[in-house]
């Protein structure tokens, strides 16, 4: 396995295997949200704690956000290359979001949970001494989260690029703009109804 495989598994692994991994990962995301974290994806790249934790409140927003990204990317992919396949777009979205699911469980780790509570307490009482260890843990978690997001976005872009064979900077810019717009609209709509 080399760096290219890590950053673009869509070229190396069978699309059916990636689909199975993506579907199982999505089921795991929903189950983790329902049974443990109370979190749901309200758009791709946005995880939110649900006020009322029911299976529907976790599953429906997650499925809507993933499905809307798949539909919009498939339409864009067909516009840019009429040979774009649905399975490649589905794999792109599901695999990239599987990486983000690591952040879904981070606030349930006792060290992180306790650190967050102490940092919130420090913010409420700024005259107290700044807890250096808590600040270090917070910076470490922020760094890990940033790395996870960059890796996920890299998978998202490489998956779409592999599925559509885009090369022109105009197509890449259009992909980025459509992805950002889709994420924002999905997030606004889902947060109003869930």
From TrEMBL:
<feature type="transmembrane region" description="Helical">
    <location>
        <begin position="169"/>
        <end position="190"/>
    </location>
</feature>
<keyword id="KW-0472">Membrane</keyword>
<dbReference type="Pfam" id="PF04893">
    <property type="entry name" value="Yip1"/>
</dbReference>
<keyword id="KW-1133">Transmembrane helix</keyword>
<feature type="transmembrane region" description="Helical">
    <location>
        <begin position="17"/>
        <end position="36"/>
    </location>
</feature>
<feature type="domain" description="Yip1">
    <location>
        <begin position="18"/>
        <end position="186"/>
    </location>
</feature>
<keyword id="KW-0812">Transmembrane</keyword>
<feature type="transmembrane region" description="Helical">
    <location>
        <begin position="57"/>
        <end position="77"/>
    </location>
</feature>
<protein>
    <recommendedName>
        <fullName>Yip1 domain-containing protein</fullName>
    </recommendedName>
</protein>
<dbReference type="InterPro" id="IPR006977">
    <property type="entry name" value="Yip1_dom"/>
</dbReference>
<feature type="transmembrane region" description="Helical">
    <location>
        <begin position="132"/>
        <end position="157"/>
    </location>
</feature>
<feature type="transmembrane region" description="Helical">
    <location>
        <begin position="89"/>
        <end position="111"/>
    </location>
</feature>
């Amino acid at each position: 396995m080399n760096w290219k495989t890590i950053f673009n598994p869509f070229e190396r692994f069978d699309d059916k295997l990636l689909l199975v991994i993506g579907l199982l990962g999505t089921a795991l995301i929903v189950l983790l949200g329902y049974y443990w974290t109370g979190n749901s994806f309200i758009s791709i790249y946005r995880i939110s704690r649900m006020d009322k934790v029911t299976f529907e409140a976790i599953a429906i927003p997650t499925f809507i956000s993933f499905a809307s990204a798949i539909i919009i990317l498939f339409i864009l992919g067909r516009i840019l290359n009429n040979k774009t396949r649905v399975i490649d777009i589905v794999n792109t979205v599901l695999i990239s979001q599987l990486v983000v699911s690591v952040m879904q469980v981070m606030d349930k780790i006792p060290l992180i949970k306790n650190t967050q509570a102490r940092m919130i307490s420090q913010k409420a009482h700024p005259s107290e001494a700044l807890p250096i260890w808590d600040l270090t843990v917070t910076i470490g978690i922020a760094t890990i989260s940033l790395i996870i997001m960059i890796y996920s976005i890299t998978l998202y872009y490489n998956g779409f690029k592999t599925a559509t064979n885009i090369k022109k900077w105009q197509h890449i810019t259009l992909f980025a703009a459509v992805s950002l717009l889709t994420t924002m609209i999905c997030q606004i709509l889902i947060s109003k109804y869930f």
